[in-house]
Amino acid sequence: MTEHLVQLIQMNEKRKLNKLEELTYKLSMDPEVVAKREKEAAEKLAKEEQENKERIENERNARLEEEQRLKELKINTQEEEQPKYNSLMMTHHLLIIIQKSRQQNRLERVKRSRSRQSTS
To answer: Residue ranges per domain, the chain?
Structure first.
């Protein structure tokens, strides 16, 4: 913990020294040159911020477009799958109807057979 605090103090002192050197350098320069450099730095920063905003906006738009594309793909896939599902369900219901019909026919045959046996 103590070493960490010492490192932080050293880093702070180094930062202060660098700032002092920078200010001393600026004071030794012509004020017009300092103003020009500060203006250029401000313009550069503004340009970087604008580029960053544009990049973020482009990424957002790309993400929204991708989400929309995926939604449309999902809807199209569901629309393509729905007729297949309907067809399968219809086939399933027809098979159930056929099975019930066969069972009913068997029951009727058994009843007829029993009734013939009982009459004979």
So the answer is: 2-85
